[in-house]
Amino acid sequence: MDIGQHQAADLTTYRNSAQEQNRIGDLLGLIPEPVHSALDIGARDGYISRALTTRCELVTALDLEKPKIVHDRVRCVQGNAAQLAFQNGEFDLVLCAEVLEHLPEPVLNAAARELQRVTSRCLLVGVPFEQDTRLDRTTCYTCGQLNPPWSHVGVFDANRLRRLFPEMEVVATSLVGSHKQRTNKLSALLMTKAGNPYGTYSQEEPCIQCGAKLKPPPARNLPQKVATKIAVKLNQLQAKMQAPRPIWIHMLFRKKVATHYVGQSAELSTSTIEAA
Fold it and tell me: Is residue 119 part of a domain?
């Protein structure tokens, strides 16, 4: 099995896990009906794009590399969420899940403007909820810098999502999954001193600092092993004392009522983009 086949097998296993099925099921359950056209941002293996065909007549699957999806109602395109080559309001629904957390601030703001621009009705967003990006972070053994897990450079809650999309109003919010995966300043420091041995080194995303592929950490010495053990024990103790948190937040938006001033009389005319 080559690397590409191995990654595909791992992704298939992940897609079929109960946690992932719960996440995807919640996303699909928030989609308003009827929806004629949908844009799936970050389509990757096409799993969600294909699932969208049960809710939408036509689906456009977009990723940085052109997706390879064989389906008579899925159109595959290469593109960038921050520079979408589509007309204003071209899609009834834009779905963007597991993407925004990867975008640094300037790119994130540009992508948010584009997502609002190309939807005529609804926008459905999914991101990790209040993720503690100190946990499972990595050390790049090319440049020596720290990386958040899975290159998740953004942390989100409901308020931040609302601020990102000022042209939209919230229709529904859903918190999905449950976990106690948090850490603390001391544990994070100890893990870094130990070389972050439990980080997400299998990720496809390169180092956010130098762009190099992440390398597995070298063998730890005795002080590093001790630091790791203390950090793990502290995290376990913390988990016992805190309540579970959601893993993801999903938020369905719709376009706000558009208000226009006509002539010098400032006469108001309004038009509403309905959401099912």
Answer: yes
